[in-house]
Structures are given as C-alpha cells and as structure tokens.
Amino acid sequence: MTTKYQRVLLKLSGEQLAGKYDSGIDTDLMGWIADEAKKVADQGIQLVIMVGGGNFARGAQIAGHGIRRVTADQMGMLATMMNALALTDVFEHHGIRTRCLSSVFAEQVAEPFVHRLANKHLEKGRVVIVAGGIGRPYLTTDTAAVSLALELDCEVVMKATKVDGVYTKDPAKFDDAVKLTEVSFQQALEDGAIKIMDKAAMGLAMEHEMPVVIFDAMQENNILRVVQGKPVGTTIK
Ligand code: UDP
C-alpha cells in the first residue's frame, strides 16, 4: 500500500486521553488509539507521539497564588509524563514495540530524549512516545510537537482534535460553519476564528514549512488515512 509519509508526528492532547472521564486517563480509549497506531506502524511508517498533559495539569491554569509560572509549567510537563508512561504500557500491551523518551530528566522512569536515540528507535520500527514536551517552560505541547517534528525530520504534524478539521466558525455554535480542507499558515495565524493551535506552534510550523493536519483521530482508520495522504481533516500548509 502506498503512503504519503514515511515519518510522522502525532500530537495527542491530555483531554483526549481522559476520554470518557473529566480528568485522568481512559485506558480503554488508549487501547483503541494503540490499535489505530498499530495500523500505521504495521505499514512500516515511523511514528513519533507527543502527548499533552491537560487532563492533569496545565501551567497557565495552575500559575498564581504563590505558584510561579515556571513551577506550574514543570508540573504540566510532569503531567505529560504520566500520560506518556501509561500510553507506552498500553501500546506494548497491544503488541506495538514502543519506547518512552523524556525531555525532563527522569532516568528512573524513562529513557532521556536524545536525538540520536530517538532516531535509532524509529529506524528499528519502534514507536517513540515523548514525555515532557521539549522540557522548557512557557511552552505548550503543540509548540513542542512542531519543534520535535522538525528535529526528527517528520514530514507532517498530525494534531488530533475533537472537531474533524478547521471551520469558518465554531461548528458547535454555528450551523452555517463550513469545513475547510486546506488553510494557509498566514490564514491560520491571522484569522481570529481559527483557534486550533497556539500561535507559537503555528508560527514555528510556518517558518519551517512543516505541514499540520488537524483531524479527528477518534474516527476509525483516520490516523492511517492521513498517513496515506487521503483527504482527512484540514491541512495547514
Ligand atoms: N509544558 C511546558 N513545556 C513544554 C510542554 C508542556 O512547560 O515543552 C507544560 C505547560 O504548562 C503545558 C503543560 O505542560 O500547559 C501540559 O501541556 P499542554 O497544555 O500542551 O497539554 P494539552 O493541552 O495538549 O493536553
């Protein structure tokens, strides 16, 4: 089967990993994602996954009342670590060779994120799940996802969202919202109605011409379809 991409980055938010719960992790849903990811890995596609942490902690929300922003972001990064560890185990349980690499120093729980090590795992056909974003505060995992995709020569950032792409207006509020199949970086940055990814992430993607696909990963075969270059979601390029 032909695929459009050979090495891809999938960004999963913490909110998605909470699935049917308000917070924490939904292991059934993680298992479902694992089976979807397996379809991609079985095609020989190299898969990097950046996980968010919003189901446990987000720096911007925690900061204040005595907690410094840097500390709050460190808490956020540790939240991503919990998701990454759980996802790694669930992936392995579903028969996918997987490694969890951490951008924060945590040798007792995960291998350190080292460029060459990540490459080696990917070349050996292992899925690489990255914890801790890129390990620095004042960033989100969206920005970290774009940065990591650039660092690892991924051909596309696949950002899984609740909606199945970019719309002209919020589809939950407006019946006449129209889905766009393609959007330019400029449009995504300038149009106030498009709030699908933070501006820092979008700016970095634009500067380095890294395409971003916004799509609903919770639909069966959608992750595989994006990799195959089939029309899914919205491509920002
Ligand atoms: N974070 C950070 N540096 C990074 C990535 C993440 O400081 O490189 C922190 C930040 O506080 C962020 C939190 O980790 O709010 C969790 O990530 P994010 O909010 O992106 O998770 P998501 O919304 O995708 O679940």
Written overview of the protein:
- The chain has 237 residues and is α/β, with parallel strands linked by helices.
- 38% of the residues lie in helices and 18% in strands.
- The strands form two sheets. A nine-stranded mixed beta sheet has the order 4-3-5-2-1-6-10-11-9, sandwiched between helices.
- The longest helix has 25 residues, at 69-93.
- It is globular, with a radius of gyration of 17 Å.
- The structure holds uridine-5'-diphosphate.
- Uridine-5'-diphosphate (UDP) binds next to helix 1, helix 3, helix 4 and helix 6.
- Uridine-5'-diphosphate binds at residues 13-15, 52-54, 58-60, 73, 76-77, 79-80, 133-134, 136-137, 139-142, 144.
Features:
single chain; 237 residues; alpha/beta; Carbamate kinase; 9-stranded mixed β-sheet; two-stranded antiparallel sheet; globular; binds uridine-5'-diphosphate
